[in-house]
């Protein structure tokens, strides 16, 4: 079997598992770096591997606009195009279309929007999203969904959730490579837990290889994200991977793992790096601050990433102040390593039955 998900240890609802894909195994829980345009910003594939990355993301919408899926296919598919031979997940473009609220219109047929690059009118439908993702060739592909904003009315959320279910059915019919690419469905429902429950019931009827919780981290406060995940994750099939989309802070990941989530993605590590900030044991350090100009200790003396083994806070502060690209690379290496290593620690804690002891400060606010 090219796709297989095996739970190897549990602590409450938290699980350590193995996700087998055509391009290798992903050990969960795991953070997945985001490589929107077939690259994780400022990093090479080798640097990503050194950070412990096992699976990365690319974006259907952005790759469709540039360079176009046909060019990727001409290169032999996404893995060869970007020289990354480990698992890849592509999102459907639904979230990106959601963010284009000023230049798009949504109907049951799909989404019509004006390209921000050249003004051309583009239509993205469930069928088109599948066609693009089949051509790109990622291991895991996402169903096209409607991601409603926060806040939204109950009526708006129900319409978006119902449309997401109908679009999933069309995605399944259009999916041309089910033996090579695992199609994940997406749960919607906003902050309304009964709508979330109904969405779970509807999409799990299709018995997909995996499922995602979408429509979170779109503006709602962290306590609402936690409430949604705590109520929704345990409803998803036990024997399938569960992916929480767009979440990547330490606290949110711990609470989500405790609820039974396996996979995460977020742009936080590279975005913070480009703004001169480092994640150090869950805290954010702004290297532009005066205090770091003469601080000769590593970012994190306990961290074993390339950056922390070789460079001081003072040097990193100098690079960021001078706007040197190396500074963004070194901070990205550390930040990505930090989040991946954090999920590895959670995995080990589940295996050794010490999850509640090691992550108690993050679990105290779980309701």
At the fold tier of CATH, the topology name is: TIM Barrel
Query: Which structural class matches the secondary elements?
Result: alpha/beta
CATH architecture call: Alpha-Beta Barrel
Q: Give the mean pLDDT.
A: 95
Assign a percent range to the helix content.
Answer: 40-55%
- The order of strands across the largest sheet is 4-14-13-12-11-10-6-5
Computed Rg: 20 Å
N→C terminal distance: 38 Å
Figure out the total of helices.
Answer: 16
Layout of helices and strands:
Elements: E1 4-11, E2 14-21, E3 24-28, E4 30-33, H1 45-50, E5 56-59, H2 60-65, H3 69-74, H4 78-81, E6 88-91, H5 94-98, E7 104-107, E8 110-114, E9 121-124, H6 126-136, E10 140-142, H7 154-174, E11 182-187, H8 193-204, E12 210-213, H9 222-232, E13 242-244, H10 250-259, E14 263-266, H11 268-274, E15 277-280, E16 283-286, H12 306-310, H13 313-321, H14 325-351, H15 355-358, H16 360-363
């Amino acid at each position: 079997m090219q796709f297989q998900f095996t739970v190897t240890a549990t602590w409450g609802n938290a699980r350590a598992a193995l996700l087998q894909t055509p391009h290798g195994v992903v050990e969960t829980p795991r953070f997945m770096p985001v490589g929107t345009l077939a690259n994780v910003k400022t990093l090479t594939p080798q640097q990503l591997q050194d950070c412990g990355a096992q699976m990365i993301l690319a974006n259907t919408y952005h790759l469709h606009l540039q360079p176009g899926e046909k060019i990727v296919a001409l290169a032999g598919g996404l893995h060869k195009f970007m020289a990354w031979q480990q698992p890849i997940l592509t999102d459907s473009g639904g979230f990106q279309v959601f963010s284009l609220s000023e230049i798009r219109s949504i109907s049951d047929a799909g989404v019509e929007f004006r390209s921000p690059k050249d003004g051309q009118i583009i239509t993205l439908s469930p069928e088109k999203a599948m066609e693009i993702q089949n051509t790109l060739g990622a291991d895991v592909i996402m169903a096209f969904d409607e991601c409603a904003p926060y806040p939204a009315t109950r009526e708006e959320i129900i319409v978006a959730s119902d449309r997401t279910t109908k679009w999933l059915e069309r995605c399944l019919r259009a999916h041309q490579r089910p033996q090579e690419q695992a199609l994940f469905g997406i749960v919607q429902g906003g902050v309304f837990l009964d709508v979330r429950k109904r969405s779970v019931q509807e999409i799990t009827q299709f018995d997909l290889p995996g499922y995602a919780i979408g429509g979170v981290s779109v503006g709602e406060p962290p306590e609402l994200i936690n409430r949604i995940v705590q109520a929704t994750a345990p409803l998803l099939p036990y024997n399938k991977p569960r992916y929480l989309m767009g979440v990547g802070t330490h606290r949110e990941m711990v609470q989500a793992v405790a609820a039974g989530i396996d996979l995460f993605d977020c742009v936080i590590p590279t975005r913070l790096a480009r703004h001169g900030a480092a994640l150090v044991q869950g805290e954010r350090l702004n290297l532009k601050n005066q205090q770091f100009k003469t601080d000769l200790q590593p970012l994190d003396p306990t961290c074993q990433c390339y950056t922390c083994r070789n460079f001081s806070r003072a040097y990193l502060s100098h690079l960021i102040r001078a706007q040197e690209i190396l500074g963004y690379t070194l901070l990205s290496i550390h930040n990505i390593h930090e989040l991946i290593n954090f999920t590895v620690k959670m995995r080990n804690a589940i295996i050794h039955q010490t999850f509640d002891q090691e992550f108690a400060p993050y679990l105290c606010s779980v309701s």
